[in-house]
Amino acid sequence: HLATSLPLPPETDRVRPRIDMIVFMIDIKSKYSLKNVEASLAHVDVNFFLGKVCFLVTGVGRVNYCSVEMNAIWNLGEVYCSPVLFCELELEGTRVATAQRLLRMLEICAGHVPGVSALAFGSLMRNSAYV
C-alpha cells in the first residue's frame, strides 16, 4: 500500500491491513520530499522504529541535481535508528535489486523468517555499510 504522507486517513482504519514495515522514500532532487518525510515521521508509533522503518533515497545517480543535503539524510537514519538505502530507480538492475532487498526486509519485519527479528535485523542494517 502506498501513501503520499502520514497520517493515513481515519476512514480507512477499519479496513486497513496490518502494517509490518514503513519505507520512507526521499527523492534527493526534491527538498519537498525530505520535508514531507520529516513531517510524516511524527505520525509513526515509536515501536516501528525498532527495526520496521527504513529510508529509501532515490535519484542518487544524479548528484549534480541534488537539492537535499546528504547530512540531513544520514541524520534521519541516526535519529530514528533506521537504515538508509540508496538507489537509482531509473536503472533496471538497481531497481530490481532494491525491490528484492525491500521484500526480504518486509519478510523479516512481518515475522516470516524464523530466528530473525526485525529489531535484530534493523540493528545489523544500521551497523553495516548502506547501499
UniProtKB/TrEMBL annotation:
Does the entry feature the keyword Nucleus, yes or no?
Answer: yes
Keyword tags? Centromere, Chromosome, Nucleus
Q: Where does the protein end up?
A: Chromosome, Centromere; Nucleus
The UniProt transmembrane annotation reads none
Per its UniProt record, what InterPro entries does this chain match? Centromere_Cenp-M, P-loop_NTPase
Q: Name one GO cellular component term.
A: chromosome, centromeric region
- The answer to whether the entry has keyword Repressor is no
- Coiled-coil region list: none
Name the major location: nucleus
Q: Which domain of life is it from?
A: Eukaryota
Enumerate the Pfam families for this protein. Answer: CENP-M
| Protein name per the record | Centromere protein M
Q: Which organism is it from?
A: Pandion haliaetus (Osprey)
What gene name is given for the protein in this entry?
Answer: Cenpm
